Amino acid sequence: MARGDTEPVIDYPLSAPAALDAPEEWTELRRTRPVARVRLPSGDEASLLTRYEDVRQVLADPRFRRHLDAPDAARVTANESGGVFSGALAGPMSAETHRQWRRMVGRWFTARRMTALRPELEAAAERLTDAMVDGGAPADLRRELGFPFPVWVICVMLGVPGEDREKFSYWSDTLLSLTRYPQAEIDAAQAEFRAYMSRHIAGVRENPGDDLISALISAAAEADGAMPDEALLSTAQGLLVAGHETTANMIGKMIGMLLADRRRWEALLADRSLVRTAVEEALRMDADAGFGIPRYITEDVRVGQEVIPRGTTVVCSLSAANRDESAFAGADGMDLGRAPNTHLAFGAGAHACLGQALARTELQVVLEVLLRRLPGLELAVPAGELQRVEGLVVGGLRALPVRW
Description:
Blueprint: E1 10-11, H1 25-32, E2 35-39, E3 45-49, H2 52-60, E4 64-65, H3 95-108, H4 111-135, E5 139-140, H5 141-146, H6 148-158, H7 165-175, H8 183-206, H9 212-222, H10 229-260, H11 262-270, H12 275-285, E6 293-297, E7 301-303, E8 306-308, E9 313-316, H13 318-321, H14 356-373, E10 378-379, E11 401-403
Helix pairs in contact: 3-9, 4-6, 4-14, 6-10, 7-8, 7-10, 8-10, 10-14, 12-14
Keywords: Heme, Iron, Metal-binding, Monooxygenase, Oxidoreductase
Cofactor: heme
């Protein structure tokens, strides 16, 4: 069945009644309009997918292109010169170079390496918790722990000085801008980041260390090849955008969800073995994962009961898909022991998030440290007063006031 042009168009992104709540429209959209016409911040139209099976199908289908660089692809924002979804950030990387890049980066983010890294992560989380406690309650957990922790990890991964983390935070925000920054500022920030990382990559080629950039250069050399600077820049940008901002925001949202209903925190205090499944459930329950994942379709494709015509830009709402009752029993309830938990928080298919093992480890470490160090942790304001970050592609909380 083809879609009709008389279908009403919804302004996207959708709003929610409270920062930790899901938009009220999701349930009805999944039931009656699983492929819904939406108007993006740019004014262009796209199709929104909210069902679990539809989202998983599209993310795994190579006919749906990741980059919105086709002439008739929808623009996400009006002032976008490409932006995070265009492919411009990664530079002119060939398909074969991209496959090589994924293989090499994937070997870095192994479960074994994450296990080896865990003591360093725990020590960093402890230091940041100490500083937060020394500053006294109430404190903004987002500012004191949520954001500095992942950016410290990224600095270690890339082999750059930790004192540059404020620059990295700013560059990350501009790269993920939806409506917050003007195009001139975005372009300037991208140029600054590329210049910074180009100098760093040149230095690493001369004096390699124990970091991801060095490992990629070495692995390429062992394979009788060379890792182009553009591929290394893409790696750095990917880590900065996906590895810093999303994880930082998820720390705040996860702790916010667990403290919003004190019984959840008490359950974890009583049974620490629930930490791993609680992290997965927080990822599934995240009602504000951000814009979603857009794809551009190059030929007519049937999704569910509808045929989506070629030239359509679709937006896959991971958050809506993760609340689909057909995929998760009691989908709107938080089950800290849910297993299995086949959520789509890290995407699906060939382009699923390469750093998901790191993100999971970071979230588990932060939760374990806070449970151990601050068992009396609680929200310092009612959950309904928490506010969302606005104007970025990723979703998060402006602040997470806590006391202990």
